[in-house]
Amino acid sequence: xxRATKSVSISFRVSPLVKRCLEEAAAREQRSxxxxxxxxxxxxxxxxxxxxxxxEPICNDVPREKKHGHTVTKG
Length: 75
Known about the structure:
Blueprint: H1 16-29, H2 33-47, H3 52-55, E1 64-67, E2 70-73
Antiparallel strand pairs: 1-2
């Protein structure tokens, strides 16, 4: 899938605990930390039907599936 817009860079500080949790969650899902953070935020927005999702389509939310014990990206 093509991205609707270019990605942007953001920078923020978190506690060491949050950093470790992000690292562990990303490793468990075989995702990058950036991809894991995007997934968590988008899942939250979908769960609570936030207006930001209605403003533009999400093109970089690629479904993932398990194959032979490994997580792979469809597409």
